[in-house]
Amino acid sequence: MSELNQAEDIRQLTEKVREQNYFFSLLKQEINKAIIGQEYMVDRLLIGLLGNGHVLLEGVPGLAKTLAIKTLADAVQGAFSRIQFTPDLLPADVVGTQIYSIKDNDFSIKRGPIFANFVLADEINRAPSKVQSALLEAMQEKQVTIGDETMALPKPFLVLATQNPIDQEGTYLLPEAQSDRFMLKCTITYPDFDDERKIMNMVASGHSPEIRPVITLDNITEAKNLINQIYLDEKIEKYILDMVFATRFPEKYGLPDLKNYISFGASPRASINLSIAARAMAFLKNRAFVIPEDVKEIAKDVLRHRIGLSFEAEAEEITSDEIVDKILGKIQAP
């Protein structure tokens, strides 16, 4: 009887998923007007939006990272701000500051650009540690403290950051504590030949597509609430936990060679975000339940920035993606 009830619940949930997924299909179509050949990046931005998680995009210049984030904000009826990170940026330039008014003989708070639904942190690795630490409270607690006043940030609140992996002059490594706050770290690659031809022709024609708002904040809130209801079987939960624990104790999972390459494994945020991201992936594929392929597809994006590489790994040019590949190959999917 319980199995019949569960099947009926999944059937009803599937109808709700299809109803809400319609709005996100419109959103994806609208984004694809301006973004050509970066479906992977667009899907990850939507997963971050659905999972209420921040997204870090890494790739060489010219891959439409900034354009994709700006287009997403334009297609959603929410407040958008862009912060261009530079070495001389101050925390007050991000969160805001207190301003003294001679007329009122009192201090007032001037809010910074962090007070928006979508915050584009462009080239985030160019900011010094003081600015990085100022972002931590905002990203984790969804609030900002200026002076003795603590203010909640608007909902939804999403930091979409970019960083350039090839230009190291004037850049700072993101602290591990801050990297862990990003739900996903996505590595963006070049478009293929045909897509780049379309991009070239679109720019040469001078055509700039108009992006219209096609989804409201209420639609996003309803979809987020639905994500938490998507069915995650106990076997899938174990699969996720095995994957995360294999980054901490690889020898217990038949991967003793990896122990010398990992200085520290993924934190509990990895298992939390992997389950949320897998649910969001299932939602985007019009399903009310998670399958192992959802977990596999999103695993690298959740884990690559949460695995600390040892000096030996760096000396042998072993990447965190290769480590995740070995873990995926070893742990049997349910």
From TrEMBL:
Residue stretches making up the ChlI/MoxR AAA lid domain: 260-327
The keyword Zinc-finger appears for this protein: no
Protein's name in the database: ATPase
SUPFAM superfamilies reported for this sequence: P-loop containing nucleoside triphosphate hydrolases
Keywords: ATP-binding, Nucleotide-binding
One GO MF term attached to the UniProt entry: ATP binding
Gene3D superfamilies: Magnesium chelatase subunit I, C-Terminal domain, P-loop containing nucleotide triphosphate hydrolases
Family, as annotated: Belongs to the MoxR family.
ATPase AAA-3 domain span: 54-184
